[in-house]
Design brief:
Elements: H1 3-38, H2 42-70, H3 72-92, H4 96-124, H5 128-159, H6 164-167, H7 169-183, H8 197-220, H9 225-247, H10 261-291, H11 296-302, H12 304-324, H13 327-344, H14 357-380, H15 387-417, H16 426-454
């Protein structure tokens, strides 16, 4: 494939990814405006967020398997159509049920987009060094979109209204669809057998049960029968999924994936990074708006150092990984982000912004350095023919980590401030945030240890077969 077409392919995949990951966090800032216009209660607003995360996380493995079997470009373009059309439905929603339904359809399109885009890049860039840099940029765009959500949401909601949080996806989706149809080459797993229906059902239902239990745990109580039942059912379904896949000749997710220490470590790293990042975005948005009293736009602008740091460091992380191996940027980034979260445990109700911005930038730089090389390390550890499923597993790990971050860190914080709102008792809320950030910093430190012990340090040589892939994949 000509170099120009490879770059256009990279651009189409990154544009599609940006839309998908932005919708994880961009809606948070618009929730007060949605509540006023659609007269929604708190439980209804929670559905706007949770419906997207739940469906997205539960369908990722299924979408990755479908891409490997029927063609990654075909699934990618189908995902673009569904995601773009459902974004228009969300923007036009006359009432809350229509908005929630649109969010569910958005998540279906997002699940089709994400693993297929990463698998397309794996096939498009056969040279190991170029592939590491491409995946590094792809993962950096993902982290940047998550961090940019509050900024973009604040700008759009404050300037044009909450509906433009969804309308902004339309031109991006159309452009990515056109480019993908012209330059993206089709790829699939030539050895793919018929669909693994038991695996698809067990995996999707298990992930849905676990994710829903994590999302609702803080609201209903971790000891409530509903939450215990959901988590237990999810554990049983996922255990059944593992047992079923171990017996199949061509499983959807081969158990040998996790026998590779680098692949398992990469999944752990992205899970812990998602845990810390989504937890931070959740608390930081509340801190700026509910505690310090800034408007959505002002709060979003004050989050810019975090976003800009990701933008700057993510492309550098890919280059660094291609020269020094995955271990160096992942470990350094996780330790830097952990130090930033620890520094943020010193915030108080009236902390001036001059004492905050550099800590936000430090956190963004650390996550930008670590997430993209960890993702590349996980994909590189698996055969290229199964890149769709491998990327879906890694992305699922990050989504589950994000759900865990909001649920677990929220529970840790709530243990300090109880049922008081941030506006009613800001000092107690900030004390809860301190506890949450300490736990998030400890989680990132665990990820740094796993990176040092298990991620492969070898560099990819230009024009050489990738030493981390089987011969047929290289």
């Amino acid at each position: 494939m000509p170099a120009k077409d490879r770059l256009l392919t990279l651009g189409a995949c990154c544009f599609g990814l940006f839309m998908v990951m932005l919708d994880n966090t961009v809606v948070n800032v618009a929730l007060p405006s949605i509540q006023r216009e659609l007269e929604a209660g708190l439980s209804g607003l929670a559905l706007v967020l949770d419906a997207y995360i739940l469906v997205f996380a539960s369908l990722l493995l299924t979408a990755g398997s479908l891409g490997d079997r029927f063609g990654r470009r075909r699934v990618f373009r189908a995902g673009l159509v569904v995601f773009t059309a459902s974004s228009a439905l969300c923007g036009l929603a006359p009432a809350l049920p229509a908005l929630v339904a649109g969010r569910v359809l958005q998540a279906v399109g997002a699940a089709a987009l994400l693993p297929s885009s990463l698998a397309i890049l794996t096939a498009t860039f056969p040279d190991p060094r170029e592939r590491v840099q491409a995946i590094g940029l792809w993962s950096g765009v993902s982290a940047m979109a998550l961090a940019a959500g509050p900024v973009v949401g604040g700008l759009l909601t404050g300037g044009l209204g909450w509906r433009w949080v969804f309308y902004v996806n339309l031109p991006v989706g159309v452009a990515a669809f056109v480019v993908a149809g012209r330059v993206v080459a089709e790829s699939r797993d030539p050895a793919a057998s018929r669909l693994d229906l038991p695996g698809l059902l067990l995996g999707s239902l298990g992930l849905a049960s676990v994710t829903l239990g994590l999302i609702e745990g803080n609201q209903r109580g971790w000891g409530s029968p509903a939450i215990v039942g959901l988590l237990a059912a999810g554990a049983l379904l996922l255990a059944g999924f593992v047992a079923t896949e171990a017996r199949r000749e061509r499983p959807m997710v081969s158990p040998r994936f996790f026998r590779d220490r680098a692949f398992s470590a990469a999944n752990l790293v992205v899970l812990l990074a998602g845990f810390a990042l989504l937890g931070f975005v959740f608390f930081n948005t509340l801190y700026f708006q509910a505690v310090q009293g800034w408007s959505p736009l002002e709060a979003g602008l004050r989050s810019l150092p975090n976003t800009l740091a990701v933008v700057v460091t993510a492309p550098l992380a890919g280059r660094l990984a291609s020269r020094c191996g995955y271990r160096v940027p992942v470990t350094a980034g996780l330790l830097l982000a952990a130090a930033a979260l620890w520094a943020l445990t010193g915030i108080e109700v009236g902390t001036p912004y001059a004492q905050l911005w550099w800590k936000l930038a430090m956190l963004g730089a650390g996550l930008g350095l670590s997430i993209s090389p960890a993702t590349a390390a996980g994909v590189a550890a698996m055969p290229g023919t199964q890149a769709g499923v491998a990327s879906a597993v890694i992305t699922t790990s990050r989504q589950v980590g994000g759900a865990l971050g909001v649920a677990v860190l929220g529970a840790v914080a709530a243990a300090r401030y109880g049922h008081a709102t941030p506006e009613a008792d800001p000092a107690a809320f900030v004390a809860g945030v301190h506890a949450a950030y300490r736990l998030a910093a400890a989680a990132l430190a665990v990820g740094a240890v796993a990176s040092v012990l298990f991620l492969r340090p070898r560099r990819a040589r230009p024009g050489a077969a990738d030493p981390q892939l089987p011969a047929e994949a290289a």
